Amino acid sequence: MELEDHRDLVEAFGMFWAGKIPEGDAFVRERLKRHPAFVAMLAEEAVILATLTEEPAEYVKAAQILATAEKRINELYKQHRPALKAYVQATGKASKSSSTTAGHGASTSSSSSAGVESPESIESLKNELRQRGQVVEEESSSDEVVSEADLGLGDDDSSSRISSSDPKFQVSSALFCKVLLAEVCLWNSMNLFKQRKFVKGVLDFRRSWKTYSDAADIIKTLTPPGQEYNDELPLFKEIKCSVDFGMGVFHFGVSSVPPAYRWIVEGVGFKGDRAASLIELKTSSEIRSGHRSALSALMYAFIKAMFYSEYEVAYQVLHAERDRFPTASIVHYTLGYVYRKEGNIDLSQDSFRAAQQHAHAIREFQMKLNYEIGYNHYLVNDWNAALPLLEGYVTETKSEAFRAYGAFQVGFCYLMKGDAAKATVFMKKVSGWYRKNYTFDEFANRHSKKFLKKKFTDFELHFHCALLLVESGRFEQCLTLLQGTIQPFIKTFDDKSCWHSLAGTCLFNLKRYDDAKVQFNHALKNEKKIQSETFCIPFSYYGLAEISLHEGNLDEADSHAKKADSFSGYDFDSFLSWKIKKVQEDISAKRA
Length: 592
Description:
Elements: H1 3-17, H2 21-29, H3 36-53, H4 56-90, H5 97-100, H6 119-131, H7 167-194, H8 198-222, H9 236-255, H10 262-266, H11 274-285, H12 293-306, H13 311-324, H14 329-342, H15 345-357, H16 363-379, H17 383-396, H18 403-416, H19 420-433, H20 439-454, H21 458-471, H22 475-486, H23 493-509, H24 513-525, H25 536-551, H26 554-565, H27 573-591
Helix pairs in contact: 1-2, 3-4, 3-7, 4-7, 7-8, 7-9, 8-9, 9-11, 9-12, 11-12, 12-13, 12-14, 13-14, 14-15, 15-16, 16-17, 17-18, 18-19, 18-20, 19-20, 21-22, 21-23, 22-23, 23-24, 23-25, 24-25, 25-26, 25-27, 26-27
């Protein structure tokens, strides 16, 4: 890739990032023949649009643009691969990486046998899916094949590319193509997973990791000892930005996969590493000339806030990105989530509304933002404000995301407003929109069935309100509700354990650790007598693990964490799973 191409790529990404979608699209289309990276950017845009709309035709279009991008990248990669191989070999220290530059793991196209799964491994994967109750897609060619010209990509014309005879530019070009192939595989796996095409999705997911890992090995090999970058190779720093982004995505993503889907990534060949992911994403974010810098910064801040509760670090990064891209809806959107996680609902609302103001080009995103604003009202038990926004989303959206849970929320709002008939209408919708192994869908499905069978008890009704207050960070208000309105409604062992567990959670977050321990232990006394609300047991063990860790009792913390981790199939198990992992990582770090 030439310097001019890369400058234009960064400019194009800045347009998309700032919400200038039509301008960015036109800018990229003018440069499609110059470098396949611009086709890859259109493919990325198409996957995001398909994800938002969930329209079958958009998924097909995204897949075809991805296929075109992969083909053109592979063609350019093969042209410049000899220069990369020769350069690596010339370093005299690349016995491992020099072999990988010959294409191993770098391509999913038929032009290379590398990365192609054997029929036996594919069949094994299908059997694994069937055993786990997943629908296994069959190979099909029913999708209409659209020509590259009809997709608006034009015919591939290598003569239009800016191409240097300088071998060092060719080295950089081959390495950048390798990274682009990894990105295309990753986006394709996302496109396939959204359609529940797990076999093909897993295969592309694996290829993406192998190619990123390969590129990271080459980057390491080509970096002179004692230096951060290879200064004699053009765009080396910018390519490293993209490699670090990809490695960070995988290292964190694999460590955070919900239990029901953990088996998918176990076959990739490595375990997740959150510490490594934070270093990689931070390093990538600091290379401002790289086109993945902004996305790396966003992911780094999101992880710091949502998984580590390091809000000041997150705000420092996000506010800098907001100043850099004031019209970037995605930055305001992420800020909305972080403010919500910290319990600052007012600022969360402001951020979601700012995102909405700049997201006028994407109707589906506007609808999602309406849902988030309604969700915030729902969290603070403002049913009148929440209801029209949540109901509007559920009624209008074609997206599967949060539709089942949204229907439950609408039903609950009507229930709290005293309209049981309308509540029943929306509770009945949940089962038709429910998706297995999706945490919020599982919760909505179980509780809507409970309501339709025998309604909610007074305890269950008000306890759900208390749960929402905890999610919004209103711990004092939740304690008041528990000790006032809710306590007289306790009837069963399930009620008792749920009450004590949630009280313990509030007290823990208020740093009243001794009081929290008392409540968690009270919750555990009824462990064998609980009929349905089993979630309160692992959550109580987790709370005790956190307190023991805070007190420096590592053996006790480890014991509680293992007990918490031994449970499965309870409400919000995927959320607790990564919290337990973090506690275990912290225990290991303190022991080291």
